[in-house]
Amino acid sequence: MAGGIFRSKQSGRQMKALNLTTGNALADDVSIADTLFTRMKGLLGRSDLPSGKGLWIKPCKGVHTFCMQFPIDVVFLDKANRVISLAVELQPNCMTKVLPGATSVIELPAGTLKTTNTTIGDEVVIA
């Protein structure tokens, strides 16, 4: 999908990310990056990430925002989809730590984690 967030062949459908602990929606439209190409591309080439959208990258243990034009919030999940770390308003041209316990991340518009009260230990469902 040119210029937009893409869907993997396996998903092909709209997914949502919900913080089960707080009951708050993290994103109503989550795309998945689960191939080598889609994981490498991530959000590169986009001018923004609209409210309600997100990108689930799996597998993933760390992210960077080199060559990006906007800040993002990042949720690091373990294999049980529990939040093990957060990057709040990660600015362009930065890099997170590599987290050995992470199996995936969700990239969200900056400010999402604050407005949804998402914290370490919360359980997230993506479906």
Write the layout of secondary structure elements.
Blueprint: E1 15-19, E2 24-33, H1 36-41, E3 53-57, E4 72-77, E5 83-90, E6 104-109, H2 112-115, E7 124-126
Parallel strand pairs: 2-3
Antiparallel strand pairs: 1-2, 1-7, 3-6, 4-5, 4-6
Describe this structure in words.
This protein is mainly β. Helices cover about 10% and strands about 35% of the residues. It is globular, with a radius of gyration of 13 Å. About 35% of the residues are buried.
Kindly state the mean pLDDT as a whole number?
91
Count of strand segments:
7
User: What are the segments in which pLDDT stays under 50 over at least 5 consecutive residues?
Assistant: 1-11
Q: Which shape, going by the Cα principal axes?
A: globular
Helix content: under 10%
Structural class: mainly beta
Largest sheet: 7 strands, mixed
Spatial ordering of strands, largest sheet: 5-4-6-3-2-1-7
How many DSSP H or I helices?
2
Order of helices and strands: EEHEEEEHE
List keywords for this structure.
127 residues; mainly beta; 2 helices; 7 strands
Quick description:
With 127 residues, the protein is mainly beta. Helices cover 8% and strands 34% of the residues.
